[in-house]
Amino acid sequence: MTTEARPESVDGQQPGTVGGRQSGTVDGQQSSTVDGRQSGTVDGQQSSTVGERQSSTVGERRSEDGHETVAEAAETPPGVDPLRRAGGWVRERMGAATAAFLVVATLFGAVWATVTPAFWGHDEITQFGRSYQVAHGGFLPQRIADDRGVAYGGDIPLSIDGLMSYAFTDYNRRPPEPEPMAADRVSYRLLESAPVTTDATKPVWFTNTAAYSPIPYVPAAVGIRLAEALDLDVGGMMLLTRLAGLAAYLIIVGFALWTLRGFRWQWLAFAVAVLPIALFQAGTVTADTVTNALALLVSCLLVKGLFLGARLSRAEVAVALAATVLLPLCKPTYVLLAMLTVLIPARQYGFSSWRRWIPWACAVIGAGAFAVWMKIAAPTGDGMGLMRPPEQWHSVRPGDQLHGILTHPVDFLNTFVESIWLRDQRWFTQFFGELGFAYIDVPAVSILACLLAFAVGLGIAERLTSDRLRTWVVALTVLASIAMIYVTLYMSFTPVGYYLIDGVQGRYFVPLAIVAFAVLLRWMPVRLSDIRGITPAKGPAIVIVVATVIALAAAVAKYNYLVWG
């Protein structure tokens, strides 16, 4: 055998054989074949085929960034380099990106939960109102009396309503620069120290969130019930409700990243999961916390099973099927994303015979549940006009808008195009972060740092293997989901005859980012490599983590300065 036939390792050593088979190299390190198949070549280097990693022999398993196997770590003398042993265990069992996510998201999610004034999150007044309703068994939209027109909402303790009213007045105050946006810390502390008056309540309007099913509010509802059990004051209930949502985000997205622990793709998913806007929402009360988490989970499983061609474990199969049913009940705009799980080949699920239809059955159940809830929530659309200025209260008419789309599609298309020319730069900035109802954009350094993390993550990601037809289906689904965002807001929030599609925000595109990147990478062969032609892992991973931390720290610093001074 010539030397050219044998790939070189990082340290210049020749790779041996693993499990009786010749190993390939991944990032320049020795790796075994996967699922008993001979490895192919990637980026001009021999690599293992993508599939489920077998764990029966720990000596055949490598960490995702290729430092040492579990067996090698076990052979290291106990007194020698314990940090390296611990790091190897984390990379192998948890995944480096998962560990980094849990640290970064916990830290900055908790910071957002504490530095953001009460009810200054996106629609946080109405989001909390719906959460409180769900916590006390109000699963269906409830009509309330309102002299202005059709309205939905529920009863809220008077002490909480007092804090809501103060926050609403405060964030609409808009003082001139450089005066802090929040009027007074002391007033918030006094209102937050009041006991929760569960016996004294008043009806509160939240038509916009009454349209959502109870599913995305479960973590917040649990936080509210726990706060009541602990007899916390208003501020304590608010904080615990926020932290409950953050915990759900950590668990769901942490699992999503864990599924990619054997692939460099985990770092691109990590960069999306810790966007400033994603962690800001995870640290405030909103249905988007669970929605974003489930969308990222579905996306990671789709990348693993379809684009990387890896077999899913039993736990991953169960979670994928559950997410297929639950995501459509969170937000209507992502129902098509949930349906993409049917594109994962049955062999990657481990299904054969009649079981290959199980994903399709779950997709049907999810779509059916979505249709039923949309039927239940349809009447709330008649009250969405009350979110607009008084002169437009009765101008939001979903039926008329739908009729206009069907009878004059060219006019709707013109409105769509004009909306892009007028607002595309705003949506781009909002994708990285427009922070709640303070309407503070993340600083330019945060956007640049996130773009750097994306570029590096895209550059080191593995080459993808999905067939052309399935890739086109995913691409068209992403485009259709984007179209649904515009159509939904055109019908439910935009006045009839308005000059643009109003209410579109860049954060609505975050749940589609990972799948969109997967389609791009399937068709883009360019990857990063070092001078030896090897795709590195450790260095780029450090760059991504540092860049995201800088982005988050800068966003927090700017927000704290502008809000509190």
Automatic annotation (TrEMBL):
Residues 1-84 are annotated as: Disordered. The chain crosses the membrane at residues 94-115, 239-260, 267-287, 293-310, 317-345, 357-378, 436-460, 472-501, 508-525, 537-557. InterPro entries: DUF2142_membrane (IPR018674). Residues 59-70 have a biased composition (Basic and acidic residues). It comes from the Bacteria. Pfam families: DUF2142. Keywords: Membrane, Transmembrane, Transmembrane helix. Residues 23-58 have a biased composition (Polar residues). This is Putative membrane protein. It comes from Nocardia transvalensis.
